[in-house]
């Protein structure tokens, strides 16, 4: 699984810039931003609050969501190119 260790905590985030193209069919739509830190904690950024999940069943749900979303993400040079096209389109 993509990720890195920060301060001794394993964080499952893409190791390179990535994005899921809006035209790509997705297994689900993420409603919030979340970070799977390890097998004991998930941080969720909601519109009005930050939530920390510690229940094993809920952590497993976010791990499955991360795995599904990572299958449609674009990584590396393809992600950088997509980001640059978006920046150029914004002027």
What does this molecule look like?
With 91 residues, this protein is an alpha+beta fold. The chain has one domain (4-12, 29-90). The protein is built from two helices and seven strands. Strands 4-5-6 form a three-stranded antiparallel sheet, with helices on one face. A two-stranded antiparallel ribbon has the order 1-2. Strands 3-7 form a two-stranded antiparallel ribbon. Strand 1 (4-6) and strand 2 (9-11) form a beta hairpin. The longest helix is centred in the C-terminal third of the chain and has 15 residues, at 56-70. The protein starts with a strand and ends with a helix. The mean pLDDT is 78.
Name the structural class. alpha+beta
Overall number of structural domains: 1
- Count every beta strand, where a strand is a DSSP E run of 2 or more residues: 7
Rg, alpha carbons: 14 Å
Q: Could you give the order of strands across the largest sheet?
A: 4-5-6
Q: How many angstroms separate the termini? A: 35 Å
Largest sheet: 3 strands, antiparallel
Give the percentage of residues in beta strands. 25-35%
Low-pLDDT sequence parts: none
* Discrete helix count: 2
Q: Bin the helical content.
A: 25-40%
What is the N-to-C succession of helices and strands?
Answer: EEEEEEHEH
């Amino acid at each position: 699984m993509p990720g890195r260790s920060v301060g001794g905590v394993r964080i499952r985030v893409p190791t390179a810039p990535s994005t899921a193209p809006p035209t790509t069919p997705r297994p689900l739509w993420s409603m919030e931003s979340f970070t799977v830190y390890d097998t004991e904690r998930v941080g969720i950024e909601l519109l009005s609050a930050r939530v920390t999940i510690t229940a094993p069943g809920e952590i497993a749900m976010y791990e499955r969501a991360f795995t599904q979303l990572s299958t449609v993400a674009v990584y590396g040079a393809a992600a950088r190119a997509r980001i640059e096209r978006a920046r150029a389109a914004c002027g």
